[in-house]
Design a protein that fits this description.
Layout lengths: L4 E4 L2 H6 L13 E5 L2 H14 L3 E4 L14 E4 L7 E4 L4 E4 L5 H8 L4 E3 L11 H7 L12 H4 E7 L5 E3 L5 H8 L1 H16 L1 H10 L12 H4 L3 H9 L8 E11 L3 E9 L2 H6 L1 H6 L4 E5 L1 H8 L6 H4 L7 E9 L2 H15 L14 H20 L6 E8 L5 H15 L5 E5 L4 E8 L8 H16 L18 H5 L1 H14 L30 H5 L19 H17 L2 H17 L6 H5 L6 H12 L2 H12 L1 H17 L2 H14 L29 E4 L3 H4 L13 H12 L3 E2 L11 H6 L2 H18 L7 E3 L2 H13 L10 E3 H9 L3 E3 L2 E6 L3 H5 L3 H11 E5 L13 H4 L1 H15 L6 E4 L2 H11 L4 E2 H7 L1 E3 L1
Parallel strand pairs: 2-4, 3-4, 17-18, 17-19, 19-20, 22-23, 22-24, 24-25
Antiparallel strand pairs: 1-2, 5-6, 6-10, 7-10, 8-9, 8-10, 11-13, 12-13, 12-15, 14-16, 15-16, 21-26
Helix pairs in contact: 6-7, 7-10, 7-20, 13-16, 17-18, 22-23, 26-32, 30-34, 30-40, 34-36, 36-40, 38-39
Length: 927
């Protein structure tokens, strides 16, 4: 294996990668992480020699089983994330590992976006979107991957690299792959010459269709190189590796008007579709009666829905999108007359305000979370999609409902992209192990009969995968199916790419390799393994992701139940570092999780179980003597600062080899001198209580200034003084802490001791909750809120905790005169994002500087309190994309809103990060 591929064969790696968002589970022999396309070519050569197949995986959000294998699983996300905007946004070049959201973020300043708009856009990658021909709510068949493809760089199983954008691409294909070139030309001519085949292909691809190979390529394109490029779209990694993608983009339409139209029944809703589509609606989403009932259980649901007495009702969620507010109003106004003629029950209004629009969309997007989160323990959530011609939508939905009843799927929901005839349905089933599959098999057979009987396709946008591969022949007929088999043979004659996917002769292939989910614990049992958490996880490029941590918990439980002590011991040994030590426990996974799992909470609890009595006692003692503990840390940092860097680094490295590296931090040159102790400042008529973070007393300010003059707390106090706001501090503040150091390590005794000290002090300082507590570091603000929320004494719930950035945005900015800088690089912290401080942070930043840059690759820095000191490799991996994006650029200031995160970003970028309020302090004078 070449050195440019990281080959992982540990059991913990193979099991961690054995699951994706589908209901299939296959354990690979190895996980390969190639560095570039050349390394993929070497993997092809190895596969040809060994006969061990390859399967590509990027985001792992596919739902049909196309991203799993018992061969070698190839990670095409890690090293293939490059994005290049072309032609002022008219086109974009991307690696297969960049997410749709990342690509669209780069295009947004140009007023453009890519056409495909899958609901998983935060986690699915462009490689998967193209390989599955994914679409979404709005793009239909006119702006999907196939329709907007400009070119691909392909690596064929033979090792041939083909850039289809090159002027000589077809000549190169003919020269290097003569059999493939001639075979594609022959198949093209065969389909074009046969009226019956041509008509069948045209009928199949007049609707959204991701079943089998895209045979419309043989009609739409003439040059074999172009035919090949478009055949690869939707081929699910069975024909070639997609090394690079160029798509034509579509206009970004940021202004929308949205309404929920409720009808008495499905007939009324589907009958209204032609008129609504005729008004130019961008999206029209169907929700059946069960969907509406599920939506009613969500407290964030629209008031109209909550007040509805649902019987046989159905609804259409309609949205009009435009480039400007005026254009959006014109579209909505023109539609109003038509909507007024429809048999709608209740309001027909189209909302412009973001809040009610968000509430409406929450109904639709929250369906998956609500049903999946409420499923019985041990079951799997299955989300399937089919498509029928729009006139057949009503009878198909009605028949599906009868099938659910027939097979006992009591809580199945039906929804979908109504204007395309694209139906999604979701049900829960117990799969895998020794569980009988008769019901699932019978339902699938009946569903196939139903959809094909209405002239539809068994897959519209989720890909054929393993789930529908046994039914491809039935949908297309023998002759077109044989053409698909010939395409596979021409591109992959040895059959090394993703066997069992898209083309499968096993009639029961969809019933093999199914997941089982043994009960473990609350967070684990709720997880649907969708992978939405992975892009926001700081350890994703180092060890494991939240999904993988949960998968491994399930595997350990499976080994425990089977009595396999050797496997259990091996997994527990490797999980200690991969699953626990390198988890930042930042909670960002919860912000992306559809069922709101905070894997950080799970990790904290597991750390608590692992913490021995000695650690519990030691940290409890530290909580009782926190002022002395922070002074000792500050003194050590000041002493280290006075010594040569090499000496200090060598001494701590030696110490970490002798002492547990989970206890002794690593020293690095960017660490500052120690800070100064916090002091009490009691003012009886104060407007707010400043709770200065102890990190400011342990770590001195950026640039080596004195912490009494510099640092976030001091800057905030000066800003308040200029604005006429009086601050006080809690009594004994030097011995107080927000509790985060104990909570993040699972040290429950120390956490309880600190809560016992902090809460009474805040109660007294706030005059029993009369004035707010202001935290000057975002993680400490979040920690204080947690202390209050966890308090057993209900009176403490009156204590209000706000962050200094939010307080400044709301109470101070309008009282200050600011001379802004030219540019600012801003790093929002994960705690700020979790608390919803994005808006206030942006407000203060735009007041500080005329140009504010948040890297498109922004994410948690992974410093996570002391994680960045105990495991600097975590911070290095987490910040690498942001550091690369900012490299070579210069800004007037670099800011964040948490001291340890500032240290992490300073280490990564090589520029001194400081608190945003310190920057504001420098550019502010009294108004």
């Amino acid at each position: 294996m070449p050195t440019t591929t990281d080959l992982r064969t540990r059991l913990v790696d193979r099991l961690a990668w054995s699951r994706d968002a589908s209901h299939f589970a296959l354990v690979p022999q190895a996980v390969a992480v190639p560095a570039d396309a050349a390394a993929v070519g070497s993997l092809f050569a190895d596969a040809a020699l060994s006969g061990v197949p390859l399967t590509f995986r990027s985001g792992g959000t596919s739902l049909s089983g196309q991203a799993g294998t018992e061969g070698v699983l190839v990670d095409t996300r890690r090293h293939f994330r490059g994005i290049e905007v072309l032609d002022d946004g008219a086109r974009v070049r991307s690696g297969p590992g960049a997410t749709v959201r990342q690509v669209n973020a780069r295009l947004a300043p140009h007023g453009r976006k890519i056409g495909p708009d899958p609901a998983s856009e935060s986690a699915c990658t462009l490689g998967g979107v193209v390989a599955n021909n994914s679409s979404g709510m709005a793009c239909g068949t006119t702006a999907n991957s196939y329709a907007t493809l400009d070119s691909l760089v392909l690596v064929l199983p033979s090792g041939t690299v083909l850039d289809t954008a090159a002027p000589d691409a077809d000549d190169r294909l003919r020269a290097l792959e003569p059999e493939l070139h001639a075979g594609l030309a022959r198949l093209r001519d065969r389909v074009r010459a046969d009226p019956a085949l041509r008509a069948r292909v045209e009928q199949q691809f007049a609707m959204k269709n991701t079943m089998g190979y895209g045979l419309n390529s043989l009609l739409d394109h003439t040059r074999p190189a172009d035919v090949l490029a478009h055949l690869v779209v939707g081929s699910e990694g069975t024909l070639a590796f997609i090394a690079s993608i160029v798509l034509r983009t579509v206009p970004l339409l940021p202004h929308a008007r949205t309404g929920l139209l409720v009808f008495a029944d499905l007939a009324g809703a589907t009958g209204a579709l032609p008129e609504i589509v005729g008004t130019g609606a961008t999206t029209v989403e169907l929700l059946d009666a069960t969907s509406l009932r599920v939506g009613q259980t969500d407290p964030r649901a629209d008031v109209t829905l909550r007040s509805l007495d649902v019987d046989r009702h159905a609804a259409l969620l309609v949205e009009y999108q435009a480039a400007t507010p005026r254009e959006a109003d014109e579209l909505a106004g023109a539609a109003t007359g038509v909507l007024g003629t429809l048999p709608v029950i209740g309001p027909r209004t189209l909302a412009a305000d973001p809040a009610p629009r968000a509430a409406l969309w929450h109904i639709r997007k929250g369906l998956y979370a609500t049903v999946a989160g409420a499923r019985p323990t041990g079951t799997t959530a299955l989300l399937e999609d089919v498509v029928v011609p729009v006139p057949a939508l009503l009878p198909t939905c009605e028949s599906l409902s009868r099938l659910f009843d027939k097979h006992g799927y009591d809580h199945a929901v039906t929804f979908g992209h109504a204007k395309d005839g694209n139906i999604h349905f979701m049900l829960t089933e117990r799969l895998g192990g020794d569980v009988p599959l008769d019901r699932f098999a019978r339902f699938t057979d009946d569903m196939v009969d139903l959809v094909l009987g209405h002239g539809g396709s068994l897959k519209a946008e989720h890909g054929t995968g393993r789930m529908m591969a046994p039914f491809v022949r039935r949908q297309y007929g023998d002759e077109l199916y044989e053409i698909m088999r010939e395409i596979k043979r021409l591109c992959d004659p040895r059959g090394v790419l993703n066997p069992g996917v898209l083309i499968d002769e096993d009639p029961e292939g969809h019933l093999r390799h199914l997941k089982s989910a043994p009960p473990v614990e609350e967070e684990v049992d709720r997880c649907v393994e969708c992978g939405f958490c992975e892009p926001v996880c700081p350890s994703r490029d180092l060890t494991t992701t939240p999904r993988q941590r949960i998968v491994l918990r399930r595997e350990m439980q499976r080994a425990r139940e089977a009595g396999d002590t050797a496997v259990l011991a091996e997994l527990e040994r490797d999980y200690s570092y991969d699953g626990l030590d390198t988890c930042a426990a930042d909670g960002m996974c919860q912000t992306a999780c559809p069922v709101l799992i905070n894997t950080g909470d799970l990790v904290k609890r597991l750390r608590a179980e692992q913490a021995g009595p000695l650690a519990q006692r030691g940290w409890a003692v530290a909580a009782k003597h926190w002022a002395g503990t922070t002074r000792a840390a500050a003194t050590a940092l000041t002493a280290a600062d006075a010594l040569p860097d090499r000496l200090t680094a060598g001494a701590t490295a030696l110490g970490r080899r002798v002492i547990d590296p989970e206890v002794l931090p690593a020293w690095s040159p960017e660490l500052p001198r120690g800070g100064r102790p916090r002091s009490d400042t009691a003012r009886p008529h104060a407007d707010a209580v400043l709770f200065a973070s102890c990190t400011g007393s342990m770590f001195g300010p950026a640039g080596g200034g004195r912490s009494g003059e510099h640092g976030a707390g001091a800057a905030f106090e000066r800003l308040c003084a200029r604005a006429g706001v009086v601050l006080t501090r809690p009594a004994g503040v030097a011995s107080l802490c927000c509790g985060t150091p104990w909570k993040s390590k699972g040290l429950t005794d120390g956490y309880a001791e600190m809560a016992r000290r902090v809460l009474p002090a805040l109660w007294e300082a706030t005059r029993a909750g009369e004035i707010p507590v202001v935290g000057d570091a975002s993680s400490c603000t979040e920690g204080l809120r947690g202390l209050v929320a966890d308090a057993g004494d209900e009176r403490y719930s009156a204590i209000r905790v706000v962050d200094a950035v939010a307080f400044t945005a709301e109470q101070l900015l309008h009282r200050l005169t600011i001379t802004p800088l030219g540019s600012l690089a801003l790093h929002p912290t994960c705690s700020a994002v979790r608390m919803g401080l994005d808006g206030p942070l942006r407000t203060v930043a735009t007041a500080v500087a005329r140009s504010v840059t948040v890297p498109a690759t922004w994410g948690c820095c992974g410093f996570a309190g002391d994680r960045g000191l105990l495991h600097p490799e975590l911070t290095a991996a987490a910040t690498a994309p942001q550091a690369a994006e900012l490299a070579g650029r210069s800004f007037d200031a670099y800011a964040s809103c948490n001291r340890t995160c500032e240290l992490g970003m300073t280490r990564a970028v090589g520029q001194p990060y400081e608190h945003l309020l310190e920057v504001l302090d420098r550019v502010t004078v009294v108004r």
